[in-house]
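Researcher: We are triaging several targets before committing to wet-lab work. For this one, the compound of interest is zinc ion. I'm pasting the protein sequence and the ligand SMILES. What I need is the predicted three-dimensional arrangement of the protein with the ligand bound, expressed as structure tokens, so it can go straight into our comparison scripts without reformatting.
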Amino acid sequence: MYKYICRYCKKPFEHQNKNRQCCSRTCEGQYKRYNGPLFIWKEGYCFMLPDISHPRKNRFGRVLRSHLIMEQSLGRYLTKNEVVHHKDKKMWHDIEENLVVMTRGEHTSFHNKERYK
Ligand SMILES: [Zn+2]
Ligand SMILES: [Zn+2]
């Protein structure tokens, strides 16, 4: 048996297999949702593999990490008409303080205004 600390609930557990990160499937699901494998798109957007039930996965089953973070803070899923804007324009800088939820329209006009300043 190998001894581990669950990365999600932080409880110690033992497992007969090597390289376990979480004590249960539930913890593993939650852990992967926010800390799991990250995919970085060429423009710097970070995608994650969320739980199976997420309604807004792209065709690779991934969701923008910025969306997951804002959804967790709002307590609901974002709608199709909402986008997450990065205040410092760093697309990989997904911390709550750097993110604002806008509608698509607001977001486009926000960036248009900036461009013609
Ligand atoms: Zn656990
Ligand atoms: Zn933006």
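Researcher: Any quick observations?
Model: The two ends are 63 Å apart (CA to CA).
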